[in-house]
């Protein structure tokens, strides 16, 4: 009898070790110590979101740096692109100076104006990957501060560049820093916000980008010289140097890499600001650390493709990022064909995206991440396919379909941001989001070439822009739903979302 009891106790102990109490692993330590939402969360998110203004300014400034320009040969008797034409005279009625007029980027040099944007998107692509890796290794805060400083230095350098080649180099490095700040700022917001408010803040985080887009026409309207314009969109970024004094490190990252004391200091300060009990923070963190694997190592880019589940995450969400980049910038070209005032057109293209952000808040919470991404892909793809069959004479129908396309793609963008942040674990979240969003940069670089197929067949661009999102919708069914799912810290936790029904945060 004693042997039976002893054996039964042994088996029970083993069972307890294998399956810990359900309520322990589902508690999110950040939410437990700092509360669901407080003054500290709101203040930090507002401060971090300010970085999205310069992100929009750099990516979209090419519209006013190299706008369409009419020109003639100084000798009116000679064709404007003839070899006999020694100089050009530009129409300066709208802009007094652009990079086109300053460096004569017309005729056989016209491709150089497009090259400036290609270089910018290439820099953002590399920045997504480089700073994603650096911030997973060295934290979110310090690489973000370095990226902001680099943006200012190279932005001012580009505005003062006497040579076009130097201008390209400065834009490339500034874009590299911008690509890094895009990824790091989003991940930092996701890691300090609890489950209940993660969706809303993940979407509201994108609105400053739209506001930055909308303020570009104001800068350009009052500053018609490209150098003054470029300085005006760079100098305000100096205010973000204050990150050095006011921005904390991600407590989730600190705990993940084992820097317990630093994490406790951040969490105690946050708890005091949120009027939460700070005296219990140390005990809560100690208990949390005891439940975690010992000597946990930081992840690396190989973890994104090391296992079948992580490969599925990376490929499927990466392709949907590609959809966003290719079709968003391709759709923007249709809106650009409306003609009229360039300042009004750019402002309208920004306004169209704002309602989609508020719709996404409702959809992501009601439908979940997967269904919202499927829906937006279907609407975007269907709209473009219809554009391909609607006759050019029905201009208002094509314009309405283009707006529907932009509306849906804006939802795709915010959904991909949130979905990526919830699929990839803390140890590789920055490099995961950075690598996935890299595909959007590849898409944005391919968009002009796809749009150029209109010279081959008028129906080709809308067909391609329509089919690509539909494929993205199909791939979404290979991804798990992450709505109300605990933010994973390790690769194992991230894979468990696909293997079983995800565990939610602590029940109220």
Secondary-structure topology with pairs:
Elements: H1 2-18, H2 29-34, H3 39-49, H4 52-60, H5 62-65, E1 71-73, E2 88-90, H6 99-103, H7 111-138, H8 141-159, H9 164-192, H10 195-204, H11 207-222, H12 226-234, H13 243-246, H14 251-256, H15 260-273, H16 281-290, H17 308-336, H18 342-351, H19 353-366, H20 369-389, H21 395-423, H22 429-451, H23 460-475, H24 491-499
Antiparallel strand pairs: 1-2
Concise summary:
This protein has helices spanning 2-18, 29-34, 39-49, 52-60, 62-65, 99-103, 111-138, 141-159, 164-192, 195-204, 207-222, 226-234, 243-246, 251-256, 260-273, 281-290, 308-336, 342-351, 353-366, 369-389, 395-423, 429-451, 460-475, 491-499; strands spanning 71-73, 88-90. With 508 residues, the protein is mainly α.
Instruction: Point out poorly predicted stretches.
Output: 1-25, 502-508
User: Can you write the helix and strand succession as a string?
Assistant: HHHHHEEHHHHHHHHHHHHHHHHHHH
Helix content: 55-70%
Q: What is the approximate shape? A: globular
- Biggest sheet, in brief? 2 strands, antiparallel
Q: What Rg do the Cα atoms give?
A: 25 Å
Sheet with the most strands: spatial strand order: 1-2
Query: How large is the count of helical segments?
Result: 24
The fraction of residues in strands falls at: under 5%
What's the average pLDDT? 82
Features:
508 residues; mainly alpha; two-stranded antiparallel ribbon; 24 helices; 2 strands; globular
